[in-house]
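[step 3/7] fold_predict: job queued, chain A
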Amino acid sequence: MQALQALVLTLPLSLTCGINLYATVLVVGLSIRYGWVADPPAALAPFASLPVIIIAGVLYVFQFFADKIQFLDNAWDLVHTLIRPLAAIVIAVMMTYGEGDPTVTIIAALMAGTVSFVAHSGKAGSRMVLNVISPHENLSNTALSVGEDAAVVGLTALAVTHPHLAAAASVAVLALIVLVLPRLIRWGWFNFAAVVARIVAAFRVRREADLLPTSQLSLLDRQSPAFALRAKAQRIRWAAGRSGYLCLLENRLAFTYTKWFLLARCWQVSLDRVHAVYFGRRWIFDEIEVHYLDAKDKPRKARFVTTRYRSPVAEEMGRRLKARGLPAVPAGAAQPVAATA
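[step 4/7] structure written:
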């Protein structure tokens, strides 16, 4: 029974270690040292020692500020990619080693390392995406960091007082992270590729239209697009976060992409339902935002992001849309102008 209790407590503490290791250690140590928890687990007694509390507190202060500064938080997360999972494994071993069954210790260590790494990946991935999408404002970054701190403190306190309830909440959080993590990984890889492409663009850029793969050409009824641009989609149901090809055809815009098991898919909208196209430029990528009416005449937005390596191709797509009678304007502009303005 004690082994099971230790495993239950390992789950939420491993999750919080993956998000904020030092806050987890600090809350556990303070709650035990000052008697905020009645009958705490004996395995957690070392956390109440004064040196552990002081070191955890100092490191938490560093994390508190580093985690709220754009791009510095990414570097901080990178450094802790191994530290957080390893610390979670050490804590799990501490809580289960004295139970007499080595199997329980091995299970706890494997579970702690996996849960902590998943939580760390979700935190680091979401922060990377947020920093790239909003590189000129730090408010969203700070708000997310404060929310993470509050969640870690709350879940850690709940773990040492009501471990079963904390374990149930941790399972729900992990399920959410697992659902979102594939998209975060795709965006993380895109951001890395975009940085590389930005460096390459200083010496060479792509000026020719991208060629649509034969497997996706069939989705357009074998109609060859007048122009195609490789991009990543946003704000399109089922296609958000997917890489594919934005295609300009005779009477419609289409975005072809592949999903699981390499199944080809296609999103499209008639040009007569598109009322504006916005062109924006950021440091590592360009974006084309399409404003249109869906089948129910509701206004919608679809955004297509491409690396700066393809800037001339994206600009040419804007010019061709403008030639079709669609106003192509820079993001934030009041009046339609040329897409290259």
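[step 5/7] annotate
The two ends are 70 Å apart (CA to CA).
The CA atoms of residues 231 and 306 lie 5 Å apart.
exit 0
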